[in-house]
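#struct-pred
JK: can someone run the complex with uridine-5'-diphosphate? inputs below
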Amino acid sequence: MALRYKRILLKFSGEALMGDNDFGLDAATLKKVVAQVSALRELGVEVGIVVGGGNIFRGAQIQGSGIQRTTGDHMGMMATVINALALRDVIESVGIRAQVLSAMTIEGISSGFNANQVKKQLSDGEVLIFAAGTGSPFFTTDTAAALRGIEIDADIVLKATKVDGIYTADPKKDPAATRYSSLSYEEVIQKNLQVMDQTAFVLCRDHNMPIRVFDMFKDNAVIRIVQGEDEGTLVS
Ligand code: UDP
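RT: done, structure tokens with the ligand placed:
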């Protein structure tokens, strides 16, 4: 089957990696995520990943503790590096080359991001994990996903969530909520739909980068998406 998307930017939140735990990483969940990455590679899809850090630390959570927000955000970005390192090892354990490129370089642990170099590595079949978000406080890893997606010339940003798309209301709280099959950037921004932060949507809008929101644990969802099938919600 022909590929609709050849190069993707996949965004996982940190929470998606913690399984049923309240904190940290869950080995079985990491394996599930990596099985999807592996299936994508088998199809020949070039995969860049942005991973969040919310399973470990978010900068905003220490407000009022005496720790400055910028310090908290640095801590949050370091949490994403922890997740990225774990993801890299599990990806490599299934025989796929992978590397962590970080907006905050840590000598001997993670190199910096260079879009030109990255595009060559992706074409060469390597999976690249972009850690430390944008490298700046007051941003999120959703914005980093939009930014990296645009920088690496991805065909689409795939935002993995626990829900299979964008709904009119929270489907867990409102049984009458219905899923949007597609939305424009303007609709998402005006309705203030909380699925990604507004900065991420505005960046994607300004650079014509489509976003698809999907359920990462729904069987083969990501595979169906790259083959052009309707899955989750498309924002374009
Ligand atoms: N962060 C930041 N700048 C960025 C990306 C992330 O300061 O460009 C910090 C921020 O404190 C954030 C934390 O890193 O709360 C973890 O990222 P995020 O909350 O986006 O993770 P996710 O919710 O996707 O797990």
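RT: quick notes.
The chain has seven helices and eight strands.
The helical segments are 27-42, 69-93, 115-123, 141-151, 185-190, 198-206, 221-226.
JK: thanks, will look after standup
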